[in-house]
Amino acid sequence: MTKSPVQPVNVVVTGAAGNIAYSLLWRVASGDVFGKDQPVNLTLLEIPAAGRAAEGTAMELADSALPLVNTITVADNAAKAFEGANAAFLVGAKPRGKGESRADMLAANGKIFIEQGKALNDAAAQDVRVLVVGNPANTNAYIASKSAPDIPGDRFNAMMRLDHNRALSMLAQHLDVPSTALERVVVWGNHADTQFPDISYATVNGEPLANEVDRDWYVDEFIPRVAKRGGEIIEVRGKSSAASAASAAVDHMRDWVQGTDGRWVTVAQASTSEYGVDAGLVFGVPAVGTGGTWEPVAGLEVSDFQRERIQANVDALKHEAEVADALF
Ligand code: NAD
Ligand code: LMR
């Protein structure tokens, strides 16, 4: 029997020896992102110090004998790793510890995304899609995109799908419904404690959701609990989220490539000034996947309550962008 005649997609995962990659690589390799008939060439990018550990991950991937895996390559050179890349998961970055904010990671992580943005610009395939996971994810996506002037800005997304999934899960538990009963939930803004999980447009089984939940629970418990869930995980688990982050990365890239069939999801990409967000800030908004591109949901009515929370994220991201601009 010969290998599949379908041309493989070239997928790069950075931080390949880390916690998130240890789950993400197997999901990608199993067809959960690009489809069950789509072979993949996997490139595992790491820093030299973690190269041996990445080799070990590659050995385990090979030992899984996954039928969609065409090639596995371990790299410590971004220029080589991104050659011909159709998709890149930029995971490799330092996670925060207890008591730190994600923005605190900018000093340690920001420069990684200058180097990788440049390498993507020079080497990636024309259709490349880049999902930035490493924190602070929104501003790292801003940095990577700024470093890659030849790649359209909307090809750089930051991951806010984990926040979106957390919001869905908490609502589903509160209402005792499956998460599939919920539509039109969105998490606006930054993957940070200012983020705004919003149920203003949401429905449960097709009915307005706001009528089904107590306002005090929504404002005083739900919003802060979703926003601070990453910190809660670090507190309880002793390490930042890994399998749930990998699962969210799979959801995001799959929906980007394959579409959402009209469903809203949360996508952070460069703003085009909708909803009073400064152009260029990588901002979480509701979007529909059309199969290859995102169509942000435009023209929604926004109340003062919503506007105030959206603005808090604009302010935070403008500040982060100023810090990021100084890294260049
Ligand atoms: P980890 O420490 O387990 O792994 C990170 C890996 O990245 C390490 O192996 C490290 O050697 C590697 N790395 C560092 N610099 C690199 C570079 N220049 N090129 C390639 N690899 C590099 O961390 P983790 O738990 O996998 O988390 C990774 C990042 O994802 C962290 O910044 C974390 O805060 C973030 N994160 C984001 C979300 C989100 O929702 N956006 C969710 C969870 C975690
Ligand atoms: C998360 O939301 O779980 C990640 O961003 C990790 C963190 O630092 O909270």
From TrEMBL:
It is an enzyme of class 1 (oxidoreductase). InterPro entries: L-lactate/malate_DH, Lactate/malate_DH_C, Lactate/malate_DH_N, Lactate_DH/Glyco_Ohase_4_C, Malate_DH_type2, NAD(P)-bd_dom_sf. One of its GO terms (biological process) is tricarboxylic acid cycle. Its EC number is 1.1.1.37. Pfam families: Ldh_1_C, Ldh_1_N. SUPFAM superfamilies: LDH C-terminal domain-like, NAD(P)-binding Rossmann-fold domains. The active site is at H191. NAD(+) binds at G15, A16, A17, G18, N19, I20, A21, N109, Q116, V133, G134, N135. Residues 10-150 form the Lactate/malate dehydrogenase N-terminal domain. It catalyses: (S)-malate + NAD(+) = oxaloacetate + NADH + H(+). It comes from the Bacteria. The keyword Lipid metabolism does not apply. The keyword NAD applies. Substrate binds at R96, R102, N135, R166. Residues 161-323 form the Lactate/malate dehydrogenase C-terminal domain. Keywords: NAD, Oxidoreductase, Tricarboxylic acid cycle. One of its GO terms (molecular function) is L-malate dehydrogenase (NAD+) activity. Catalyzes the reversible oxidation of malate to oxaloacetate. Belongs to the LDH/MDH superfamily. MDH type 2 family. This is Malate dehydrogenase. It comes from Corynebacterium hadale. The lineage of its organism: Bacteria, Bacillati, Actinomycetota, Actinomycetes, Mycobacteriales. The gene is mdh.
